Amino acid sequence: MGKGIQPAQSCSSVLDALGNTPKTERSSPRPKAPKRTALVLGAGGTVGIAFHAGVLKAMAEAGVDPTAAEYVVGTSAGAIVGSIMRTGNDLDLVWAMAHEDRNPFAENQPFVRPEVIFSQGWRTPIGLARRVAGSAYVLHRTVIRWPAIRPPLSLQHFYRAGIGSVTEQRMEFANWAGEEWPEEHLALCSFDIVTGQRVVLGPAGAPRPALPDAMRAASAVPLLYPPVRLGRRLLIDGAVKSSTNLDVAIEAGAELILVAAPQSFDPDHKPPLHLRASKELFNRQLDREMIAADKAGVQIIAIRPTVTEAHEHGLNLLRSGEHGRTADLSHEHTSEVLKTPKGRSFAKAWKASVAAQAAARVAS
Q1: What share of the chain has pLDDT > 90, as a percent?
Q2: Given 11, 26, 74, 317, which is the most exposed site by the fewest CB atoms within 10 A?
Q3: How big is the CA angle at 108 (ends 106 and 110), to the nearest 5 degrees?
């Protein structure tokens, strides 16, 4: 016979070869993308600003850095606080404004000067009548919206809405946040009385007037302040649509949201009727938004005023002083919420997301 390879020998050689072949290493699982975080700051007047000051301080102390939120959505008072924070101001300044009743952006000035909250916008009885007539149109478009009466532009200029002047207010907002929009995401929610639709100012592709004008539009309380004109739009306080506009953060893609809602209350611990009557509609809207968030799989913490806080807030949400206790109570309540099992889980997820985002920025 020739010297061919024997069959048994051939099989043995093949098996040996297979046995010595190095195994392919399993690829390590891809790390999960960090959850997208959002801070939603609701309406509430100057009292709301103090409420937010306490919430932000408690968040920072718990390691839930509010400045690291990927999205910030602000309505009315929340638009003001969100703008101050997003433009690089230290959170201690916001706390000082409310807790110490001083304006850190101007020497020897209180938290909010009375003329910033309200400065008479008329000089004669006729001027007042014109403003009242214009305000009636704003009220009609805000509440009733039908029939869609649209007076000529000349009449709109003649019958100016809002009984207050906003000259001092705009100057103050410019002192607090500057004229330019920040690079980070900031969405300020307003309402267009012409179309009856919400208008979100700030994000990519959205209208961007000068920042103080956007702050005014998002906090232009109907009847009290004149609407802000933006092209053909007439913009007023975004709380007309919702006191928080939580759905804006959800639509942006946020998966981890803390919402501070001064114009609401805990449904399980309701304040007296006279303190909750004006907040009932806002509270129901927030409940609907939170149900939608839950269905979308969003992890959310809502900071709502306690009964004690509701008594402290009172009925005048636009007062110019005495906000220290409001800030203290909000700080205390938020700290307690973040210490609950749900709050600790939320804080852990927030910290992990912020750390992952920071690592991704370094890697890129």
Answers
A1: 53
A2: 26
A3: 80
